[in-house]
Amino acid sequence: MIVTFLRFQGIIEKRKFFIELPFTQSKLITAMKDNCWSSKLAHNFLIEAGRWTIEGNWLERNNSPLVVKGRTIIAWSQDNWFTMVTKLIFPNCDRPEISFQYRGHLDEGERQYTYVLQQSLLGKVEGEGWIAPESIIQRYWVLGDRQRRSGFETFSRFDSNTYHLSSGILTGHYLTSTMEATLKRQF
């Protein structure tokens, strides 16, 4: 009988852990066929408190891309509430900065969460997020908005200290702006 040790990485109470489990060859093949495990089980962005820089491009309908830079700070409370504050600036441009203040709740062991957001461009916003093995996807909608504005954000994990952000704001069914950026963790 051949025994293989699989190493899993995870997070419990915001602390990383590694565990090695013995698998016989037949159990390993069954697990792979059933796709019941993933090589990347943990995210650093959003799930852990930290500081991140943002650099990328902001695009609006019928306009040239604008360079965008910013910072994000994430904090967690003892009762599974998170806050995320983001500030975006547009260097070499007279466009005003955009600020975001998120407050959300993620129950331990869950992959879905809800949040409220105050954004300088859109106002009061509600949203939901899903934590997938390779990315974090958020969608939101502006409260009491006659223009029916909404949006999405996808944070794709490149490595434990780098994420790629793709986001967009919609008015009704039409994209009005998008952003693509790289987030890098600051130590």
* Element-level helix/strand string: EEHEEEEEEEEEE
Helix content: under 10%
Task: Count the domains.
Answer: 2
Strands side by side in the biggest sheet: 3-4-5-6-7-8-9-10-11-12
CATH C-level of the largest domain: Mainly Beta
What value does the Rg take, in angstroms? 19 Å
Assembly of the depicted chains: single chain
Annotated CATH topology of the largest domain: Lipocalin
Describe the protein.
Helices cover 5% and strands 63% of the residues. By secondary structure, the chain is mainly beta. It has 2 domains: 3-34, no CATH class; 50-186, Calycin beta-barrel core domain (Lipocalin, Beta Barrel). The strands form 2 sheets. A 10-stranded antiparallel β-barrel has the order 3-4-5-6-7-8-9-10-11-12. The protein has a two-stranded antiparallel sheet with strand order 1-2. A hairpin with a 4-residue loop joins strand 4 and strand 5 (81-89). The longest helix has 10 residues, at 25-34. The chain starts with a strand and ends with a strand. Residues 1-8 and 23-41 have low confidence and may be disordered.
